[in-house]
Every structure is written in C-alpha cells, then in structure tokens.
Amino acid sequence: MGSKSAGASVTLTDEQFQSIARALADPHRFAILGQVAAAEGMACSLLHEHDVISPATVSHHMKELSEAGLIDVKREGRDAYISLRRPVLDAYLKRLACL
Fold first, then answer.
1. Torsion, Cα of 52, 27, 40, 99 (10° steps)
2. What is the pTM of this model?
3. Hey, what CATH class is 14-97 in?
C-alpha cells in the first residue's frame, strides 16, 4: 500500500479502498484507530477498548486494521505497539471525499 513515511503519497486500489471501508465500519475498530491517531502511536495495552471487549477481540480488530493497511504493529516481546499509517488514511479520506 505504498510507503510508510509521513510524506509519501499513496494511491489505493479499489480492493484496498473497500478493505479500509470494511475495517472502519466496525465501531470498535474505528475507536481504536481514533485513539492511535490521537496518540501518534501507542502501546496496545493502553487502548480504551480493553475496558469493553476481551484482549482476544482487541487483537482481532488490530489484525483487521493492519491487514487494511491502516496501522503498523510492532511487537517487542509480549508487548505490541501500534502506529497509524497516516498516508494510507489520507489517501482513503481523499478518495472518499470524491464520491
């Protein structure tokens, strides 16, 4: 889905666009993405979603967001750190605005 760097321009295929739309349709995934974007990256253990859904479900939602290309997950031992792939989200929002 293109480069991970903040200045990179990303062009989404139809499949990528639809994958992101499906990922963001879930309220928990949308909330997770919002938290990660606001924090400019964070430890998974700090997600507020842990208060309302199980760790396994949080993990599933992170996997969906990662597969859609919206977040990067970096594992260090038992910890996971997540960061937003801003160029991908920007490309999605730009394309969405053209509908």
1. 180
2. 0.87
3. mainly alpha
